[in-house]
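#help-structures

NK: newbie question. if I give both the sequence and a SMILES, will the prediction place the ligand too? trying with zinc ion
OV: yes, paste both and it writes out the complex. here, I ran yours:
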Amino acid sequence: MAKSNLEIKAREILKAAKLYCTAGRVAILTVLMKAGEPLSQNQIARRSGENHFDKVTIYRTLESLLDVGLVHKVFIDKRARHFELSHNCTESQCHPHFTCTSCGDTTCLTEISLPMAKSPHKGFIIRRQQVRLEGLCPACA
Ligand SMILES: [Zn+2]
Ligand SMILES: [Zn+2]
Ligand SMILES: [Zn+2]
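OV: that's the protein plus ligand as structure tokens.
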């Protein structure tokens, strides 16, 4: 199979993060780049193609990508953690996510930047802000 541009990009990202280009890492990064929206572990597994990585491999590979900050957890939906590439986020803030209450599709709102919330009480330290918006997408409205 010919290497896609996304696969080449995935290898570059891994090299920059000083991680070995394992087939699993390349597949997961490629799947997340192609999706452009947060995906659950099951969705990643289903889309990771002909190699059919098992659950344990997907889990371990995701953990290694989370460790170096290439991927991060976005939210939990129907008990499933959803992951995305960190390249559109800063250390302290992830862009807002819009989930359609009718079809369930989630969109990354990378063009919106919200002011960081201020801690309301003493002793609370805000490390990261993740905002989730709900409503109807253009197709369902
Ligand atoms: Zn993010
Ligand atoms: Zn919709
Ligand atoms: Zn996103």
